[in-house]
Amino acid sequence: MVKKLSEIHIRDPYILTVPTDKKYYLYGTEGSTAWSGQPVGFDSYVSEDLIHWDGPYPVFRPNPGFWSDHHYWAPEVYAFGEKYVMFASFKADHVCRGTEALISDHPLGPFRPLGDRPLTPPDWECLDGTLYTDEDGRHWMVFCREWLQVTDGEMYAVPLKPGLDAAEGEPKLLFRASDAPWSKAGEQGQYVTDGPFLHKMASGELIMLWSTGGAKGYTMGIARSTSGKVTGPWSQDPEPLFAEDGGHGMIFRDLNGHLRMTIHSPNVQPLERPVIYELAEENGRLRYVAKN
């Protein structure tokens, strides 16, 4: 079934551009089961123009015995050699939430777990792992440690083994949510870290999109690595990039090479929908200039 973005109820949107197919693949958290209910897995939508989306197509369905039975969140899919790798977060009762790697021969799956457990520490409540490969070819996963466990949400990077099937070292703390001047504490005094995504600017500067609570609801801003390395140190821009109750964004290039960003907005169930903006980069800053 062909749909427009306004008809697709997902959170945490992620778009993979595949030039050889001349197609885009949209993934995300199923909106109706994001917080409650038992998800069936992950789906994808396919487009040739970023306007009309065909689907949903099932890309991940857990086998019997899969350890998680709820909170299937934030799938991201990357080309990895001749394969495709998905990072996604999962939860089970009495088991800490974690990000796991899955692998497939095709963007539409089927994806299967790559390792035997999540890439995040087993005794940490974590979510929203995103893949970054540095200039030396080393793979890292940047992820959030939840405020539920530490109150002031934390952002970490952990090095991964070449096959992405396990961590290869200890997580390194990058920053805390309260470090950003636009981050606002919730009713319980908590600061949220959500949705990291790393991007190299035209100048070579390494930035990170990430989301938290702000003055007008869900808010997304930019952190900058002052060393150019994923391990930082990281500084926070003084003003957010998007402050109107939307976020968990990522950046991609369309088939014509133009820079785009997708987020979900608003951050209110059941109204959240994926939104796509065209971006402009000016003097080391990003600005969204048009909306699909």
TrEMBL record:
GO molecular function per UniProt: hydrolase activity
Protein origin, superkingdom: Bacteria
Record keywords: Glycosidase, Hydrolase
Pfam families, A to Z: Glyco_hydro_43
Pathway info: Glycan metabolism; L-arabinan degradation
Hydrolase recorded as keyword: yes
Entry similarity comment: Belongs to the glycosyl hydrolase 43 family.
PANTHER family to which the protein is assigned, alphabetical: ARABINAN ENDO-1,5-ALPHA-L-ARABINOSIDASE (PTHR43301), ARABINAN ENDO-1,5-ALPHA-L-ARABINOSIDASE A-RELATED (PTHR43301:SF3)
Protein name from the UniProt record: Glycoside hydrolase family 43 protein
